[in-house]
Amino acid sequence: MSATRVLVLNSGSSSVKYQLLDMRDGSRPAQGLVERIGEPSSRLKHTPLGGETRERTGPIADHDAALKAVADELAKDGLGLDSPELAAIGHRVVHGGKTFTEPTVIDETVLAEIERLIPVAPLHNPANLTGIRTAMALRPDLPQVAVFDTAFHTTMPESAARYAIDVETADAHRVRRYGFHGTSHAYVSRATAQLLGLAPEEVNVIVLHLGNGASASAVRGGRCVDTSMGLTPLEGLVMGTRSGDLDPAVIFHLMRVGKMSTDEIDTLLNKKSGLIGLCGDNDMREIRRRIDAGDEQAKLAFDIYIHRLKKYIGAYYAVLGRVDAIAFTAGVGENAAPVREAAVAGLEELGLLLDPGLNAVRADEARLISRANSRVTIAVVPTDEELEIATQTYALVGDN
Length: 400
Hints:
The chain is α/β, with parallel strands linked by helices. The protein is built from 15 helices and 14 strands. The strands form 2 sheets. The protein has an 8-stranded mixed beta sheet, sandwiched between helices.
C-alpha cells in the first residue's frame, strides 16, 4: 500500500492544530486542536472523519506531551504515526526570510536557519521549531517538510520588498518586507483562477485575507508582486487587535511624551489596537450588531477598517495594471457580507459591480458575488491552508 497521507501540524506558542489529509481524494481522516498547553486547563479536541468529536481536559505540560497526546488519539482511530500510509509530516513555519522560497525537507541545517530567523519572528518561529523537533523525535525516519508563510511573497520585486532606509542598516538587520499568510494567498489565488476556468498564469488577482489578522496581496500570473504585511504581521490593514499602517514617528512620540517603554508600545500596537482599540470589540459580528443598534463608536471603527481596505484595493489595482478578480477569504472575508459590500462600494468606475443578492448568500464553497456585467470578477473563496501545506508537502516527498 502506497503512503498517501500527510499530517499537517501548526504549532503555536500554546497550541497545536493538526489535520490528517489523504492526498488520493483530499479527505481528512482526522483533525483536531490542543490548546492552553502548559496550563492546568489544557484541552484536546479530536474529530475523526464521520465520527464524534472526542474531548479531554487536564494538564498537558509541553509540546512534546501535546504531540504524544495527538498521536494517541490518532492511534485510537487506526491512524497512528506508525501507520505505513503516512507519507510525511508538513509543518507550518511562519518566517523563512529570504532563504526559503519553497517547501523544504527539514534537516539540521534547515532547523538552524529557522532558529537564526527568530529575531524577526520571536512569537512564531520558536513554537514552530518546538513542534518540528518533537515530531522528528516521534518519527525520525519520516520526511518532515517546512512550508513557510513568507515563501509565496519572495517573488516580490525589490522595489516592493525594500523599505526606503539606509541599505547597509537594512541588510545588517534583515529589515525588509517579507509578508505573511502566504499559504492562504497562494491557495486562494490559484482557486480563484480555477473558479474563472483559467490557469493561474493567465489571471491577475487581488486577494483579501480578512480574519483577526488581515492582509492583502497583488498576484500577477500566479506570482505575488506586493503584499500588505511587512517585516512583521503588524503592517498593512486594520486588524482585530493590530494597528496596521502607522506613522513610525507615533512610536517615538509615545516614548518621549507618553513615557511608554518599547514593550508597552509593542503590546499596544499588536494587542490593544485595530478594531479592539477603536471600539472595544474585535469580533466583526458584534461590531455589526452594535452598528445596527446605533453605536457610533462601532460605526467609526468599521469605517476606518473599510477605508484602509479600499486604499489597498486601489493601490494594488494600480500595481497590477489589470485586475481580473478580487477574492475575499478567511473568517471575515468569507462570512461578513457587509464588509465585502462596503469594500467595493463606490468602485464601479474600476469595473467592480457587486450583486447584492449573491453577496448575501452564505455557502461553504467558492462562489462569484459580482454581477454578470462586472468587468472585474468579485469572488468569495474559502481558504484552506492545511490543504495547501499538505499539497506542497506531498508534491515534494510523496513519490519518494
